[in-house]
Amino acid sequence: MKIKYLIFTLLISNLQLIAQETPLYIGTFTNENSQGIYHTTFNTQTGQLGPIELAIAIDDPSFLAYSPNKKYVYSAHKNGFVSSYKIEDNNKLTLLTRVKSEGKGACHIAINATSNKAAVSNYGGGTSAILPINFDGTLAEASQVLNKNLENKTARAHAAFFYENELYVAYLGKNAVSQYKLQKNDTYKLTNNAIVDVNGNPGPRHFKFTKNGQFVYIINELAGSITVAKRTKKGFKLIETVSTLPKDFNGKNACADIHLSKDERFLYGSNRGENTIAIFERNQKNGKIKRIENVSVHGNWPRNFTIDPSGNYLLVANQNSNNISVFKINTTNGHLNFLYDVKTPTPVCLLF
Predict the structure, then answer these.
(1) Nearest-5° angle of CA 166, CA 172, CA 174?
(2) Does a structural domain hold residue 35?
(3) Pairing between strand 36-43 and 53-57?
């Protein structure tokens, strides 16, 4: 009887471990070592990555996004295209459509779950394009192109985010996050050139809203800082701008990605150059942040990072050192504990 109970217990334990396996897709810059989008699994209970395998051979899929039902994946390519894929039972990808991003250097794609639209940001061309998504996951040609370029200056669109009937786009070349609102004719209209005014040339790159949309955190690539703003009845109010670097750092640095912890008590930003993740404690009432630590990424050039679905692990894509570093998050104080790293060819985007 004890043996049967032991076997049953082991079986249940193994089933629980299997249930914790979640797919992870890896976007790359293709070269002699990297061939496209890779996939693996991540165990949210043990923190272990599975074998890394090629999901599809495709050129420079540098940023990835899921469809709301997670049956399809979308990628932006720096040669000015956007692709859609069907996820097969073995986690391989089948190419469905490939359409123009309506600009050079597509670097980011965001999906709107309610309106079935994608927004692609073109860093090289400076434009943002709205692409309708069909019921079968395929992409249609752009229905609208947002162009904020000046005759003598490129806007450098770097990231976009949908919130309800609003669209926000970070323009590094304009030093602004702009706000657009969806109109009755199903197009987006510019309603605010810059949700907050900033000094100098900080270069906003990526940004995160809190779940309730009341606070936004903008990571500035050129200034090495994070700008905090709060939504008001009249728009957004600048709260503060905080450095991602210690005062004694004097090397070259370029910030990249930014994420909130699952409970929104902590904020994380990546430093390329110092090669760290900056950890901030967040005041959930007034939105202010305080940097508490910078942790080495155990690699070079952390272009992108992500937090797993459980909220207990943080994974970093180190572009120039060809590895993914895995950290355990201390959910009490926000600190990161390095666990291990795995070799991966030119990882630049991690998608759970």
Answers:
(1) 80
(2) yes
(3) antiparallel
